[in-house]
Amino acid sequence: MNEFRTDQVPTAGHTPDNDLTGYHVRAVDGDVGRIGARSADLGPHHAVVRTGLPLLGKDVVLPAEAVSDIDHAARTIHLRWSRDEVKAAPVFDEEKYLGDPRHRDQLGGSEGSGH
C-alpha cells in the first residue's frame, strides 16, 4: 500500500513531516474539499478530507492510493478518484476512531492496531 507521504513527489523536496492540513483536494472531476486536521491521527496511509461546505460538510477517510499528485506550491492534492467515489468513502468518526483501536483495520489500513 502506498503511504500518504509528501516525499513521494520527486520534485517536491519535502519530508513526510510536512503538514498537509488545509490543502485543497481535487478529484478528477472537480474540487471536493480540504485536508482536515485529523489526518495526522490516521497515520501515513490515510487522510481525512472535509467535504462540502464548512458547516454542512462531512469528514471522509481516503486511502493514500487515491492520491495521484501533491502540488505544494498550489497547496493542492490531486486524486485519482471521482467526486462520487470521495462521497462514498467511509465517514471519519472521531469518537469511534480514537476510542476503538480496531477502527483503522475497519478503514482498510495496512498497519492495524494488532487488537
List the topology elements:
Elements lengths: L23 E4 L2 E6 L3 H4 L3 E6 L6 E6 L3 E5 L4 E4 L3 H5 L6 H6 L3 H5 L8
Parallel strand pairs: 1-6
Antiparallel strand pairs: 1-2, 2-3, 3-4, 5-6
General form: globular
Mean of pLDDT: 77
Please report the distance between the alpha carbons of the first and last residues. 20 Å
Strand content: 25-35%
> What structural class is derived from the secondary structure elements?
alpha+beta
Number of helices: 4
Low-confidence sequence ranges: 6-15, 109-115
Main sheet: strand order: 4-3-2-1-6-5
Rg calc: 13 Å
Helical amount among residues, as a percent range? 10-25%
How many β strands by DSSP? 6
Report the sheet with the most strands, covering strand number, pairing sense and barrel closure: 6 strands, mixed
* String of helices and strands: EEHEEEEHHH
Description:
The protein has a six-stranded mixed β-sheet. It has four helices and six strands; from the N terminus they run ββαββββααα. The chain has helices spanning 39-42, 83-87, 94-99, 103-107; strands at 24-27, 30-35, 46-51, 58-63, 67-71, 76-79. With 115 residues, it is an alpha+beta fold. The longest helix is centred in the last third of the chain and has 6 residues, at 94-99.
